[in-house]
Every structure is written in C-alpha cells, then in structure tokens.
Amino acid sequence: MFRELMGLVDEFEVSFFGDHGVVTPAGGSARPAVAGIFDRPAVDVGAFTSSDDVDGLGFVSGAPMFTCRTADLPAGITDGDGLVVRDADAVLIGSFVVREVRPDGTGMTVLVLEKAT
C-alpha cells in the first residue's frame, strides 16, 4: 500500500513540476522527451573555523540532477549519454552529459549530470 501511494506521489510530482529531458545516447539519435524534475542543488561545504573567522565559511554548487520515472527512460541509458532539459514552457534549461545513473529501487531514477561543453 505504501509503495503504491509513493508511486502516485512520484507521478504527481513529475507531472506537476513538468521539466522535460530528451536523452541522446552517445553516438545515437534523440529519444522521445521524458518528464522529470531538474535540480541544481547547493551544498554548504564550509563552516566557521573559529568564533571570529568569517573567511572560514565556504559554499559550492552541487552537481545538477534530473529525477524521472525509471520506466520512462530509454533502455540502456548510461554514463556519457546526452540530456537536453527544458522547463514546462519549453524554455531551454541546458544541455548536459549523464555522469551517473542512480535507480532508487522504487521506480524513480536520478541522473547525475555535468554541463555539456
């Protein structure tokens, strides 16, 4: 019951937040768009090293990610494949290279990305 409920929640989030990614396998042609959620997290990597050391505070951006339903991805997606992401209004977010494919075992997959050059 819980797994089914979480599946409905995941489906709602993916359709509601509505980014779309087009996967292009390395050396292949573009596949149909996949609905998902694009995220570029920020990670706090620093802290004050002493009570009066403001320079000890650090900040760095995390890797961009695209979360989608595993079943929506083309079979065989792997590191090195391309992903072009657009928002719900079809505005280009960016072109990326897949660096890691992380299925979570619940029917969702996170693609860890790197900006394409």
Spatial shape: globular
Q: What's the order of the H and E elements? A: HEEEEEEEE
Structural class by secondary-structure content: mainly beta
> Could you give the count of β-strands?
8
On the 0 to 100 scale, the average pLDDT is 80
- Separate helix tally: 1
Distance between the termini: 44 Å
Number of domains: 1
Low-confidence blocks of residues: 48-54
Q: What composes the largest sheet?
A: 6 strands, antiparallel, barrel
Report strand order across the widest sheet.
1-2-5-8-7-6
| Proportion of beta-strand residues | 35-45%
Q: How much is the radius of gyration in Å? A: 17 Å
Protein name: Phage Head-Tail Attachment
InterPro entries: Phage_Head-Tail_Connect_sf (IPR053734), Phage_tail_attach_FII (IPR008018)
Your description of this structure?
With about 120 residues, the chain is mainly beta. It is about 15% helix and about 40% strand. The protein has one domain. The strands form two sheets. It has a six-stranded antiparallel beta barrel with strand order 1-2-5-8-7-6. The longest helix is centred in the N-terminal third of the chain and has 16 residues. The termini are far apart. Pfam families: Phage_attach. This is Phage Head-Tail Attachment.
Helix/strand layout:
Blueprint: H1 2-17, E1 19-24, E2 34-39, E3 42-43, E4 60-61, E5 65-69, E6 82-86, E7 92-103, E8 108-115
Antiparallel strand pairs: 1-2, 1-6, 2-5, 3-4, 5-8, 6-7, 7-8
